[in-house]
Amino acid sequence: MTGLPYLGHPGVQQLLHKLMDHLDRAVKNGCKSIRALKLDEKTFPSLYRAPFESDKEELWGYVEQLAKLGWIQLKLERGLFGQAGYALEPRVVVMDEPSIRQATGRLSRIKASLELWQEAVYAGLQAPKETQDLVARCPIDIPGRTSVEIVNQFGLLPELANRPLLLREVSCRLFWGGSKILDGKGALIAAILNTEECPFAEMPIHLQVHLPKQGFDGVLFIENQTTFEQAMRDIGPRFKNLALIFASGFKSSARRLRQPIGASVFFSEHGATEVEPKSHFLTWLRADSELPCWFWGDLDYSGMGILSTLRNSFGTIQAWQPGYGPMLDILQQGGGHAPVEAGKSAQRAINATECPYADAVLLPALRLEGRFVDQEMV
Fold it and tell me: Can you tell me the distance from the alpha carbon of 299 to that of 371, in angstroms, rounded to the nearest whole number?
């Protein structure tokens, strides 16, 4: 730079480039504030490894000139009178980035991927500000595609909203065949479309259903597969006239369970397989008829949480007393297990499920005893 010949000094250039490296790295990592760079042998070897004290003093004088120009700010620890500034653990803050970039020939910095995503969202996503803010916090990275290209694809969503598509099918159509790009992003899609829920179901829930051959007038959700298998073969009165449901991983707590595209139903060959009982069940499942229904799972906080969530889709569902009653007896007699003994220490206590029996009887017992009972015990 004309009039500032010392800017070409190798040591000065080393410092200025180090400052740009420090700044670019912080921005790339998404830092909102840039920390001061500490000068030492690692960050400024030209000064701290100079063989002669006169060389150090000359180079430090140039550093002070940069501070006088307003390009940097020097922060020094207190020291003895007359002690050199470079011996006072100096730290440097960039104050005039454009001038330093011009002096180093690094006229632009490499923007962080998050910054590029946010710029693309605010420039290209046609949506209210609050929606843009939400999308800006959820970057999508596809190798070989820019953030602008990705954001532009969201403009195609309204055309697909009324089609009976799964979320992964939508992902394929939007993002060049990538089926998993939108996994777990249903809320994001709902926000972009300004709908209460994402109109595209994730992979359908697989429901295993056993229909009693003598007919059914109620439905029982069972949490664990072993108990479900036992219940299908139980010829006693406990499960008489009950349709039994097991959902793998018990994702049946999802709201989409009652949507035709949200669940695939598989009927057990051990039960009724005629058209009429299956139609009766599906009519109930799709919320076109009412049947009493219950949930039976482990007597622990996770089980109570499933019951609570199921009530979002099945508003009248209750804890099944014929199953929980014997488990409650075991619990109150000192049986069951401590949470740590079954890898359940992370389960969080819940205050209420909105089921009268669970809230008045089961949850107080769990809090009092501090133990759990698995449903396989009964």
Answer: 9
Provide the H-helix boundaries in 181-241.
Answer: 186-193, 225-233
199 within some domain: no
HSE of 147, CA atoms in CB hemisphere, 13 A: 20
**DSSP label at 341?**
G
Cβ neighbours for 5, distance < 8 A, ≥ 6 positions apart: none
Q: Over 230-264, what HEC string results?
A: HHHHCCCCCCCCEEEEEEHHHHHHCHHHHCCCCEE
Same-domain check for residues 243 and 361? yes
Last residue within a domain, chosen from 193, 216, 250: 193
Full residue range of the structural domain in which residue 55 is found: 5-104
Evaluate whether 218 touches 243 at the Cβ level (below 8 Å).
yes
Provide the domain count of the chain: 3
Whose tokens are 């396989």? That residue is 376
Question: 87 with 187, same domain?
Answer: no
> Tens digit of pLDDT per residue, the chain (378 long)?
556 889 999 999 999 999 998 988 887 776 767 889 999 999 999 999 999 999 999 999 999 999 999 999 999 988 777 788 899 999 999 999 999 999 998 877 667 788 889 999 999 999 999 999 999 999 999 988 999 999 999 999 999 988 888 899 999 999 999 999 999 898 899 899 988 778 887 777 889 999 999 999 999 999 999 999 999 999 889 999 999 999 765 555 566 788 777 788 999 999 999 999 999 999 999 887 889 999 999 999 999 999 998 888 898 999 999 999 999 999 999 999 999 888 888 888 889 999 999 999 999 999 999 999 999 998
Q: Tokens 């050199």: give the residue.
A: 84
**Which of 193, 224, 255 marks a domain boundary?**
193
Give a yes or no: residue 370 inside a domain: yes
Among 155, 154, 142, which residue's Cα sits nearest to residue 116? 142
pTM of the model: 0.58
172-207 burial by CB neighbour count: b if 16+ within 10 A, else e?
Answer: bbbbeeeeebbeebbebbbbbbeeeebbbbbebbeb
What number of other Cβ atoms are within 10 A of residue 209's Cβ?
A: 20
Give the single-character DSSP code of 71: S
Q: What is Dmax (Cα atoms) for the chain?
A: 102
